[in-house]
Amino acid sequence: MSRLSGTPWRELGADVGRDARVLDQLAEVFAHLHSVRGKGFGPVTDESDDSFGSWAEWLRQGLTVDIGQLLDARVADRGLLELAESALSAVAVELADRPGALVHGDLGDGEVFVDATTGRVTGIADWGAAVIGDPFYDFARFVAGGPVDDARVPRLLPGLRAAYAARTGIDWDDHRRLMDLYDAHNAVNNAAWALREGVDWVASLRAKAERLLQRVVEA
């Protein structure tokens, strides 16, 4: 396996000019990546049995498994599972209309390699979470593997979304419910990870997921 050139982006520290250049390049990468269509939905593997019949089905399975872990540990109640199902039902038509595209699924500042001098993106690592699904899901997962108050999200995500919109013409305001659902999906997944790893993020991530799912249902 060849070693990627450059330095992990997170190790370079915040730099407004360089970060803007990196985000612009990542928007272009996402635009190209999301133009690739796949069969079915779910994990990108060589096994056809891993494919799901719909994007909603894959989302539902992830929520069910992760919330199940929270229920088993008694750090959530069944109301969260019921709320997740209500949210999926509320956006069922929108989910059915979304394309099945190649999605990185876990892109953060540790997976992006950058030339420290020029700000050129030299590589992207860690494709283990890649799925065929809605391109918007990549934006819910971008630098979003931390606690609810992770400062990277408000610092970096708006610039990426703006650069992507400039390339694709999408209006993010038209997709608020989907983004709330995907953000909730990510929060639940992070809460399950935090539970397994003994990290003290579970309660705040669960509360975030509940708030977002409720907003989807009530919108």
Automatic annotation (TrEMBL):
<feature type="domain" description="Aminoglycoside phosphotransferase">
    <location>
        <begin position="1"/>
        <end position="175"/>
    </location>
</feature>
<dbReference type="InterPro" id="IPR016259">
    <property type="entry name" value="Hygromycin-B_Kinase"/>
</dbReference>
<protein>
    <recommendedName>
        <fullName>Aminoglycoside phosphotransferase domain-containing protein</fullName>
    </recommendedName>
</protein>
<dbReference type="InterPro" id="IPR011009">
    <property type="entry name" value="Kinase-like_dom_sf"/>
</dbReference>
<dbReference type="InterPro" id="IPR051678">
    <property type="entry name" value="AGP_Transferase"/>
</dbReference>
<dbReference type="InterPro" id="IPR002575">
    <property type="entry name" value="Aminoglycoside_PTrfase"/>
</dbReference>
<dbReference type="Pfam" id="PF01636">
    <property type="entry name" value="APH"/>
</dbReference>
